[in-house]
Amino acid sequence: MSKAQDFSKLYARVASDIATALDDVSRLDVSNDKGNAHLANVKEKLGEMKARFDGEISYLEKHAEWDNFTIAFFGETNAGKSTIIESLRILFQEKKRQALIEKNQASASDIREVFSEKSDALIDELSTRYVSFCEDIATLGDDIGALVNQTQRDLQRTRQQLDSTQQEYNYCKDRLSHASGELENARHSLASAESRLGDTQKNLTQAQAELQQSAEQLQTLRNGFLISQQQLAEQSAQFQACQSQLVESQSQAEQMRTSLERQAKVKLWVGLVAGAAIGAIAGALGCAHLL
Asked: How far apart are CA 204 and CA 131, in angstroms?
């Protein structure tokens, strides 16, 4: 694997670490509004830094040179950077510089001036970016400090709430202990009630047995009553039969009485007629004797 590929992986790993850190910060949750505002500012700054860093990483991946040994010098203007560079170029007899000198296309002063301008521009750009980066870091530090302070205040309130919760827990614990004592008393009362219930169940069993005996006796009486009722029904039927016979006898007696009355009337009339006839005959005979 080449050096360019190794450093490309290094760039990708650094970018991945920054993205992971930003994702971790994005998952943070603060219950306070001010803390959320500071956290949003931190997320925004980190996002801007990540975007800028990703752009610079992409630029380095595209333009970085790792096949040749490269030396860079940083410092203030007119500090001697160009002199050192030109000395090294002369010492190592740079081919490009020698060719330019031979062809009179550029002089040492022109090369020094161009290089100095480019190096100064590069230094200025790096300084500007460094200052901007420091400002972003300072702003980010302020936001993180504010977030830490807000988090500490939230933590203090949480501790106070925890103390209050602990007091409530102790109160509930005391109440639970008192309730446990009452529950124990209730258990004893329940045991006593269960004992009384056992006695009551025994009495109930005995009463049920007596009730069963009474039910059997009642069933016997009921059977006797049914038998008596059947006998009474039979006697009632016999009585009705006798009553029917009596009614029939009364009817026959009434008929006989009516017949006897008729016969008596007939006999009476016959007697009267016979008596009248006998009287008339006797009167006639008496008159005849008198005559």
From this structure: 100
